[in-house]
Hints:
Number of helices: 12
Order of helices and strands: HEEHEHEHEHEHHEHEEHHEHEEH
Largest sheet: 8 strands, mixed
Number of strands: 12
Shape: globular
Oligomer: single chain
Amino acid sequence: MDAVRKRLPFSGYSDAYALPSIIRCETNLYLAQFAFMKLLPAKYIIEQALARGALTHGMKVLETSSGTFALGLAVVCRECGFQLEIFTDPVMDKGLENRLSSLGAEVFIITEKAREGGYQRSRLDALHARMRKLGHSCFWPRQYETPDNPAAYKLFADQISGILGADVTLVGSVGSGGSTCGTIERLRQKAPRARLIGVDTFNSVIFGQQDGERKLRGLGNSLVPKNVKHELYDEVHLISAPLAFAAMRTLHERHAVFAGPTSGASYIVGRWRARQCPEETVVVICPDEGHRYVEAAYDREWLKQNACLNDSVLLGAPATENHPSTALPPWNRYLWERRTREAVLSLLEEV
């Protein structure tokens, strides 16, 4: 791990958070626990933009985010002396908004949802309007489409292969696609048979469901990001919010890993896979710690009020479906078999 850290191109007090701790939970099950994973691509994207001259001092950085990518940008922009504007929606919790503000970011909450594409579309529309006003004096990191997002995870992949070898089964949540796709592409350079299991949630369009309300945040999307390379995934699991919350709490109780709901969603999938395939080395990506969820998903009263309390779900197993439109909560698995993006879009047209 020290050799990997020496290759980090970053400088500043946030370097300590760039790579995760690797934690062994069971015989063949490992967790990659990040403090907050999105710091890694945020730093890499800004560094690359500075190196190319696409970002120069005096410019503003603009991005759309409701989660920790905004926080990662805020940390990096604070270090580098850039003003940051974040376009988000009401789902952003007050604690995160306060942290962004304390780091000097300006937060714009978009309250009207677009007819198609939901809040993510309306946030993008607001960002584009702001960019037209600022002209050439702003920089948009484009987390959902810049190749610098997945490229940032080469460091993480090298960490995994240095400790566990490259022939692993990687399990991770899918939002922008950067972490899972970037990591597996690097691992497969050394081990082409390395496996990738994507974890999404119901009512996310990424793998073919119809768009809808989602209680589970930090994964899923109302648009299909360009950085999701569908042909890299071997399996896809859809996880409901109650199941993810229960798994998150179990992760904390059994292994003292204090993580968020997206980590819980990936953990239950990785735990099931590790037991089904004891010959595989399973690595679960845990994107962030649980501080933002202490008064929500870690609070039994909050779970009851939001109809998300379920203590028995970990005893189950996924149903297996051949088409995403037939997948129903709480947990569905289907064999993706490295199909292309075009195949996913055709599925969306059928639904």
